[in-house]
Amino acid sequence: MSPRSNRVYELFVLNVALQLFDAVATYQGLQIGWHEGNPILVSAFTYLGIAPTLLLFKAKACGLLFLLNRNPQHAFVAPALYVLACVYTGMSLVPWVWKFSGLLIRVI
């Protein structure tokens, strides 16, 4: 495996992990009464329910990641995976960790 392919694979795994984290954190956050910030998901929750909506949207996201991972030598794949990881870190990981850590501090 070339260094570029290896880097793309690592970014692919990171992005899948971020997607899984986002799904679990969103589900758990909604269970304790917090609100989802994505209006598209909120709308879909009404029609499909929380778990099916999260499964559908995360399956779509992971499918896109899989397609990107299939062509690691293409020039835009690694930058796209970097950008996606940054977006999900900033828009999901950091806010959810912040919220859950605040909850943990109140419990302790």
Would you write up a description of this structure?
The chain is 83% helix and 0% strand. It has 108 residues and is mainly α. The protein has one domain (3-107). It is globular and about 45 Å long. The model has no long low-confidence stretch (mean pLDDT 94).
Element string (H = helix, E = strand): HHHH
Question: Sheet with the most strands?
Answer: none
Nearest-angstrom radius of gyration? 16 Å
**Distance linking N and C termini:** 47 Å
Shape: globular
Question: Characteristics of this structure?
Answer:
108 residues
What is this structure's SSE topology?
Elements: H1 3-31, H2 39-48, H3 50-69, H4 77-107
Helix pairs in contact: 1-3, 1-4, 2-3
Summary?
By secondary structure, the protein is an all-alpha fold.
